[in-house]
Amino acid sequence: ECTLYFLAKLTEVQNANLLLQRDYTTGVSIYNIITNLLRKLKNRLQDDFFWL
C-alpha cells in the first residue's frame, strides 16, 4: 500500500525530471523547475497531504 502512495506522487518528480532533460533548458528554466518542485513538496508536507 505504501508503494502505491509513493508511485501516485512520483509523477511530480518525474515531470520535473523530464523538464530538466530537455535539450533547450536554460539556467533560468532550471531554477524555476527546481523551485517549483520544492514549493510543491513543501506545501504537501505543511498540509500533511504528502501520503494521501
Defining traits:
single chain; 52 residues; mainly alpha; 2 helices; flat
How far from one another are the termini? 11 Å
How much strand?
A: under 5%
* Helix content, binned percent: over 70%
Q: Give Rg in angstroms.
A: 13 Å
Structural class, from secondary structure content? Answer: mainly alpha
Could you explain the architecture of this structure?
The protein has two helices and no strands. It has 52 residues and is an all-alpha fold. The chain has one domain. Helix 1 packs antiparallel against helix 2 (27-46). The longest helix is centred in the C-terminal third of the chain and has 20 residues, at 27-46.
In short:
The chain is mainly α and 52 residues long. The protein contains two helices and no strands.
Write the layout of secondary structure elements.
Layout lengths: L1 H19 L6 H20 L6
Helix pairs in contact: 1-2
